[in-house]
Task: inverse folding
């Protein structure tokens, strides 16, 4: 495996292999991630100068200036006949390195992603807040893109997205969509969000709730008749609520909890797990939709009781991560080891696995 002189060549090879991510790292060979596993694209390491040349070869002079000032840069690039990539350039021990993630051109439907019908139902909401949560690489951006695509195809509305960077590109459909990117189009999430409120929006998408001011403005937008959709890097609903509330000073938290309990509509938490039935990954999810019981728990800050309320909310379209994992396990999509790795209640998973094994015996 020989070295290549341009990042486009490595991105092309990454896609030809079915990879999702490309990593350019000084002192190591370029590597791509295929179904969660890293694979080297060369048998030779690249040095700091080579890594710098590869990464800087696809960014503009203004982006280089931002990288030098901020020491990191989020951006996106499109390569003809290869695809679109979300990228991050950054310094590591004084050297410039980069990571590139492929963004599919076609936005999959919620059903194709593996979401339950109750997630599609959320797209009919006209106001409030929907949170999509999960670790980095859990598919949050794709889920939100699928939701926005569905909404634009089904009703007349104005959607404003605030992204860092823009990943999926939407058609207007029956409405209008304004996609704004941090850097080229606006200075910050909080500035763009305040501005969005003056752009006659029906839907506001914030790619991430990163700071107090953004969270505060997003809650205000959701309270005042807009549908706000955003993400958090948290694994479930209780941790999502904790994260949002703990950002605020103690003397403001009670007010924020009350506001959030009034405007939050749902939390969709997801993770991607390696399949055992064929190559690829499959989604496991948890869905919490706000009802009177959950709202009361939020106000009283009894977040530890939320999982029990999700368990009894099946008729309202809710399910826990363990129920999702058990379904995938019983249908032989994932292994027992992976199910146990991602679950809350190991006994629940083992009981479901044993019952399925018994049922299949002759």
Result:
């Amino acid at each position: 495996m020989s070295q290549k002189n341009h990042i486009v060549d490595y991105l092309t090879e990454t896609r030809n292999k079915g990879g999702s991510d490309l990593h350019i790292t000084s002192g190591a060979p370029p590597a791509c991630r295929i179904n969660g596993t890293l694979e080297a694209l060369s048998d030779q390491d690249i040095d700091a100068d080579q890594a710098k040349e590869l990464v800087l070869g696809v960014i503009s002079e203004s982006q280089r200036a931002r990288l030098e000032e901020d020491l990191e840069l989020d951006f996106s690039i499109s390569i003809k006949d290869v695809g679109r990539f979300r990228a991050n350039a950054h310094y590591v021990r004084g050297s410039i390195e980069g990571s590139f993630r492929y963004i599919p051109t076609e936005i999959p439907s919620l059903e194709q992603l593996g979401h339950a019908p109750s997630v599609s139902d959320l797209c009919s909401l006209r106001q409030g807040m929907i949170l999509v949560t999960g670790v980095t690489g859990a598919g949050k951006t794709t889920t939100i893109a699928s939701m926005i695509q569905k909404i634009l195809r089904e009703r007349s509305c104005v959607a404003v997205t605030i992204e860092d960077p823009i990943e999926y590109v939407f058609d207007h459909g029956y409405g209008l969509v304004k996609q704004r990117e941090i850097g080229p189009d606006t200075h910050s999430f909080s500035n763009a969000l305040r501005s969005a409120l003056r752009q006659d929006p029906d839907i506001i998408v914030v790619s991430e709730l990163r700071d107090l001011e953004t969270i505060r403005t997003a809650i205000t937008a959701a309270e005042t008749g807009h549908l706000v959709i955003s993400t958090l890097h948290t694994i479930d609903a209780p941790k999502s609520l904790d994260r949002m509330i703990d950002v605020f000073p103690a003397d403001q938290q009670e007010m924020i909890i009350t506001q959030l309990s009034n405007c939050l509509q749902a939390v969709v938490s997801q993770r991607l797990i390696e399949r055992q039935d064929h190559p690829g990954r499959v989604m496991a999810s948890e869905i919490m939709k706000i009802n009177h019981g959950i709202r009361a728990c939020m106000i009283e800050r009894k977040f530890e009781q939320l999982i029990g309320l999700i368990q009894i909310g099946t008729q309202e379209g809710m399910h826990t991560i363990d129920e999702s994992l058990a379904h995938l396990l019983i249908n032989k999509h994932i292994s027992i080891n992976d199910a146990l790795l991602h679950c809350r209640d190991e006994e629940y998973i083992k009981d479901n696995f044993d019952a399925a094994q018994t049922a299949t015996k002759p």
Notes: The first helix runs from residue 7 to 16. The radius of gyration is 22 Å.
